[in-house]
Design goal:
364 residues; mainly alpha; Peroxidase, domain 2; 2 domains; two-stranded antiparallel ribbon; 4% strand; globular; binds protoporphyrin IX containing FE
């Protein structure tokens, strides 16, 4: 059975999300100033995962959303775009809760990446179409995010596709996390009901080398090396969830800010590669364990092209060899946040438009 998000007829527009009552009640009682939407967002993305009980609710959410989506002939307007951004913001935790914002922004930026990064340029297959294969372990955690977004997407499903809405959610998160305002283009087509699920195994392994990342981003997706370096700076928002991937911690101290902290930390922090209790390898701050920041091998690959290999387990190991294809870009983005914003915007628009040549800006 396909485990992707699928479309069905517009008449069946109710999400299949189910939540366990005690969790809803618990959060509601501590968030008196929040709307119901805030509560749902916090529970699904922040509260549950942060409290380490994501697995408890995981069983309470069905693996397939049966809601409708479509990208028919409707011509989106700027006013409608503003309405759709407002819908995303109904779910957004307030700035007074930076931990919840970290989870919320991170989830919303990661989702369109995972929808898009299935593309294969040589065959023009897959890519951003509002469908994820829930059977792919790389998509861990995202079914919850999709269910959450569906609560505000479904009322608007006749004016915008789900694939477009996920990009709007990502753009809104980036904007509200003090990142660039990214111009939006619409017209992505959702996958059809009953279509084959996207293949698994397309995502980069977090414990991979630069050569693997090059093969995925440049060779398969058709992006440039500059795009790759600019995109991975998105790890400045959000964090890793040990219950989901086995990795732990955010990449910098401000996981709710879309700033160039990822590049600054990548260059300046004293990293040490460690084996976690979950049997995953990641890079931690070596003399300051309480700092609780991390890097994946794939992040460190932008600095060293043999990061994680025997002989390159510590940031100042003489056996670590600089990645000459990427290190100058990392240094540029660490020195100039505006330059990164510009290059990120270009790369993000390219990523989220893979396979489309007919996207349009909303009409004035
Ligand atoms: C080599 C490429 C990449 C690898 C191996 C990778 C891997 C990961 C992993 C393992 C996590 C932790 C997930 C969790 O534990 O919940 C993560 C989170 C995240 N990734 Fe990536 N990623 C890559 C590229 C990207 C790109 C290109 C973007 C966006 C443009 C992105 C955006 C994010 C965000 C925002 C989060 C935080 C999610 C959250 O807070 O829930 N990643 N990534």
């Amino acid at each position: 059975m396909a485990e992707t998000v699928e479309m069905d007829t517009p008449s069946s527009a109710s999400p299949t999300t189910k939540m366990e009552e005690p969790m809803v009640a618990h959060k509601s009682s501590s968030s008196s100033s929040w709307t119901t939407m805030h509560v749902v967002a916090f529970i699904l993305v922040g509260g549950l995962i942060g409290a380490g009980i994501a697995s408890a609710i995981w069983g309470g959410i069905e693996a397939k959303s049966s809601s409708s989506g479509g990208s028919g002939p409707h011509q989106l307007t700027m006013a409608e775009y503003a309405t759709l951004q407002a819908a995303v913001r109904m779910l957004e935790p307030p700035p007074s809760d930076p931990a919840a914002q970290t989870d919320f922004f991170g989830a919303l930026v990661r989702l369109p990446f995972h929808d898009a990064a299935t593309y294969t340029a040589s065959t023009k297959q897959n890519g951003p179409n509002g469908c994820l294969n829930y059977a792919d372990p790389a998509n861990g955690g995202l079914p919850m995010v999709i269910s959450m977004l569906d609560t505000v997407y479904l009322p608007h499903k006749d004016i915008v596709s789900r694939a477009d809405f996920w990009v709007i959610a990502g753009n809104t998160a980036i904007e509200d996390a003090h990142g660039p305002v990214i111009p939006f283009m619409y017209g992505r087509q959702d996958c059809r009901a009953g279509s084959a699920p996207k293949p698994t195994g397309l995502f980069p392994n977090p414990e991979s080398l630069w050569t693997d990342m090059f093969n995925i981003f440049v060779t398969r997706l058709g992006m440039t090396v500059q795009d790759v370096v600019a995109l991975i700076g998105a790890h400045t928002v959000g964090r890793c969830h040990p219950q989901i991937t086995g990795y732990e911690f955010p990449w910098d101290a401000t996981g709710n800010r879309f700033d160039n902290g990822f590049y600054l930390n990548l260059l300046n922090a004293p990293w040490l590669r460690v084996l976690t209790v979950n049997n995953t390898n990641q890079w931690d701050f070596s003399p300051v364990p309480s700092a609780n920041f991390m890097m994946l091998d794939s992040d460190m690959a932008l600095r060293f092209d043999n990061a994680g290999q025997p002989g390159c387990q510590v940031y100042n190991d003489t056996a670590c060899t600089p990645n000459n294809a990427t290190i100058a870009l990392v240094q540029s983005y660490a020195a100039d946040q505006n330059l990164w914003f510009t290059d990120f915007t270009t790369a993000w628009n390219k990523l989220t438009s893979l396979g489309y040549s007919n996207l349009k800006p909303p009409a004035p």
